[in-house]
Amino acid sequence: MVSGRFLGVRWQAMGDSREDGFEASALGTKEHWDAAYERELQNFEDSGDAGEIWFGEESMSRLIGWLEKQRIPLDSCILDIGTGNGVLLVELAKSGYTDLVGIDYSPSAIQLSKKIMEKEGLPQVKLQVEDILNPSDELSGFHVCIDKGTFDAISLNPENAAEKQKHYVKSLHRILRPGGLFLITSCNWTKEELLNEFGKEFLLLEELPTSVFCFGGKTGNNVTVLVLQKKI
Ligand SMILES: C[S@@+](CC[C@H](N)C(=O)[O-])C[C@H]1O[C@@H](n2cnc3c(N)ncnc32)[C@H](O)[C@@H]1O
Known about the structure:
With 232 residues, the protein is of the alpha/beta class. 36% of the residues lie in helices and 27% in strands. It has one domain: Vaccinia Virus protein VP39 (Rossmann fold), CATH 3.40.50.150.
């Protein structure tokens, strides 16, 4: 039904227009991600290709560069929410971070990320199937949570997306320690819209500069990257 690879583009819509201007999309469903990671898992087994890096390589260097510039301690407990193939965690581990956890609600994504960690020789990276909208009790006390495209995907869910967004903020608030950091990369939301969603519980520390995204011959899809801090 949907074959595009970029979040938030209107041609992927399922025709269900919403008040917030988004169109519901298959990209907001677990079925989509399960099928996508089944394919990526097969590709990885066939060719060793780790698959899609959402927002490109630069999105990872931007986040890691910021953590390094701020001298975030290497033993900080860091969670990647909706880790997909886990490549961001690979890069974090290669940069010296030692306490890394990745979650994804798609079991195929976790299977793929585990295989990639095995290939990279990084068995210490913890990976588990978890729905961020209903996190288990053991998921708590993180110094840093990172989201690259997951809040975007959740916002495109055809059913009760607004409620799911609220749930997301609640879960995030629960799993981060007071003063903990949240780094979000989004192509569906502007800075103002993200602050509208997260601003009650989180303070804006910084907006990180991004270049203009180019996809399918079209340019102008700006990516927003914010660093937020859980209020104490
Ligand atoms: C656009 S992809 C981004 C993947 C990865 N963060 C990256 O940057 O390459 C969105 C990811 O969020 C995951 N996801 C969506 N909703 C989720 C939820 N409620 N809980 C956990 N993971 C979710 C999907 O399975 C998918 O891996």
